[in-house]
Amino acid sequence: MRRPAHVTSGLFAPPEPSRTLTALSADGARLHVEVHGPEGAPAVVLAHGWTCSTAFWAAQIRALAGDHRVVVYDQRGHGRTAASAQCSADALADDLEAVLAATLAPGEKAVLAGHSMGGMTLMAAARRPGLREHAAAVLLCSTGSSRLVAESLVVPLRPGRLRTRLTAAVLGSRAPLGPVTPVAKKVLRYATMGPGAAPDRIEACARIVHGCARGPRHAWSQVLAELEIDALVRELRVPTAVVAGTADRLTPPVHARRIAAALPVCVGLTELTGVGHMTPVEVPEVVTERIRELVRTYVTVEEDVA
Predict the structure, then answer these.
(1) Residue span of the signal peptide, if any (predicted)?
(2) Residue 44: how many CA atoms within 13 Å on its side-chain side?
(3) Cα gap 135→158, rounded to integer Å
(4) Helix (H, G, I), strand (E, B), or coil: what is residue 36?
(5) Which of 86, 108, 195, 269 has the fewest CB atoms within 10 Å, counting from its CB?
(6) How far apart are CA 150 and CA 298, in angstroms?
(7) What letter would DSSP give residue 14?
């Protein structure tokens, strides 16, 4: 029997949602959506990254769902959302708008947080009416808006054409990831996590990443390799916080600094020493508290009800 694509006990085991639903995107894609926490509570919408799933946010859901309404969804081709022929930044933005429309009341404001490709989703949607209607504030975790392959540090070579070609080959590989073995966990930790990442966090990330089908993994790697949404960062006109790990090899801190400098309303750039790319899992309490701060500052239930 195939092991589940997430751990099944502890902090990083996904809790049962209050309800599940399907959001219909613009091209007909059917997105798996979960809602956790009490109706009427301040809303938080979380978008996961490449090769991940709703399970990636388990620690944040557990911490926030007591007094927040937490919405998570599987990006197309990930988790319980089927793969689609349409893979693009515009498709990511379409999907986010569909989830917001399906889970939030007209005019209701929420904090939107995205990790990696999830952060790219929020930036890609910066001009969209749905985001502008519903975003009270945004948190961008371990993400970038362009030059993702050229500036990646996964391949330990000096910057240049050779490193870029090799990085593209590694990240765009069609090879199956196979079972989660001790060697596989070492590879994943090197590529995506800080050197001091705890074993339970490595295990949690490995289960999720290895659970992603290789077809969608490859398709989305091609989209990310060509991503160029710098102009849209300047259109994200709500209070936006940025979090990055100093040991992130996939989206090194240069990306976070460039985004923070371009944002119209940047409300903080936090660089976490020794932390890698998987910030919501590596330091869940830091990411959760940043979300709480944004909710306290920018979301009020009274405004949402009105």
Answers:
(1) none
(2) 29
(3) 40
(4) strand
(5) 195
(6) 36
(7) P
Q: What is the pLDDT of residues 163-202, one digit of tens each?
A: 999 999 999 999 999 999 999 999 999 999 999 999 999 9
What is the C-alpha to C-alpha distance for residues 266 and 236, in angstroms, rounded to an integer?
Answer: 10
Residue appearing with tokens 């330990």: 156
Query: CA-to-CA distance for 296 and 67, rounded, in angstroms?
Result: 12
Quick one: 102 exposed, middle or buried, by C-beta within 10 A (0-12, 13-18, 19+)?
A: middle
User: Residue 143, exposed/middle/buried by CB under 10 A (0-12, 13-18, 19+)?
Assistant: buried
Give the side-chain half-sphere CA count within 13 A for 129.
Answer: 3
Q: What is the DSSP letter of 236?
A: -
**How far, in Å, CA of 254 to CA of 252, rounded?**
5
Asked if 55 contacts 208 with a C-beta cutoff of 8 angstroms, the reply is yes
Residues 75-102 have pLDDT tens digits of 999 999 999 999 999 999 999 999 999 9
Res 305: pLDDT: 38
pLDDT for res 301: 62
Q: Going by C-beta distance under 8 Å and a sequence separation of 6 or more, which residues neighbour residue 201? A: 12, 193, 278, 281, 282
Around Cβ 185, how many Cβ atoms within 10 Å? 19
Find, among 243, 236, 224, the residue nearest to 125 by Cα: 236
150, 169, 172, 171: which is closest to 161 by C-alpha? 150
What 3-state class would DSSP assign to 113?
strand
Helix (H) or strand (E) holding 203: helix 199-210
Place of tokens 């289960």: 207
pTM above 0.85, yes or no: yes
Structure tokens at 11: 């902090």
Please give the single-letter amino acid code of residue 99: V
